[in-house]
Every structure is written in C-alpha cells, then in structure tokens.
Design goal:
8 strands, 3 helices, 2,3-Dihydroxybiphenyl 1,2-Dioxygenase, domain 1, alpha/beta, 26% helix, four-stranded mixed β-sheet, 41% strand
Length: 127
C-alpha cells in the first residue's frame, strides 16, 4: 500500500493552482471539471509520477471550519520536504511569500512555515 493522493483545502482553486505552480514550482498534473468545481492535482517536478496533491475546494462548511481553525491556531495543514530550508526560504521570500516561522533547527530537522495565500499554513522541512 502507498499514498498516491492527498488533499489540501483551498479557498479558490484558480488562485491555489497559480500559487502552487508559479510560486512554489509544482507541476499541474490533472485539471478536470467536476460540476461546480474541478479535480486539480499538482506534483513535484522531481517526482511527476509520485504523490499528487489535490487542491480541494473548501466549499463544505466542515472543510472551511477545519481549515480556518487550524490556520488560526498556527497549525500547518501539511509539510513539504526540501533539500535546503534556508535556500527555499530565501527563494520564496523573494517571490513575496509571507512566513510565520523563519527557518528553525529542531534536533535533526530544520523547519519553516509560510502562508499559502489559500487559507493554509504550510511547513517546509529539511532532514
């Protein structure tokens, strides 16, 4: 068994797609109309056959409430691995990304947290 797809609630699918591809550098894999919304997935450019991230609309009240509560409590919705947190931090800062936690070493891991502009805090980690 392996993880093939995971979801992230977003406020606006078009804005999320732009942020996740243009700012973060993920690659769009799927963009399929599904009634009022779309099935949009992105993947790492380094593993285009790897795990897909669904940019899931937060239209359902429970999804919106969950997303709002964890954001307000400062809890990242997910974590992405990077080779060098400091380098990624600098790259994203230059693109105007707002960080809520600068690169911080915690034992064997260095992490940082940013606002994805779509209703989520995202943690990046370097092992």
């Amino acid at each position: 068994m392996k993880i093939i797809v995971t979801s992230l609630f977003v406020e606006d699918q078009d804005e999320a797609l732009a942020f996740y591809t243009e700012t973060l550098g993920f690659v769009k894999k799927e963009d399929i109309p599904m009634g009022e919304f779309r099935w949009i997935t992105v993947v790492s450019p380094e593993e285009q056959e790897g795990t897909e991230l669904v940019l899931e609309p937060n239209h359902h009240p429970a999804a919106k409430e969950y997303q709002t509560k964890i954001f307000n409590d400062g809890i990242p919705a997910t974590m992405f691995g990077v080779a060098d947190v400091q380098q990624e931090y600098q790259r994203l800062m230059e693109k105007g990304v707002t960080f809520t936690m600068e690169p911080t070493k915690m034992g064997e891991v260095t992490i940082a947290v940013f606002d994805d502009t779509c209703g989520n805090l995202i943690q990046i980690a370097q092992k």
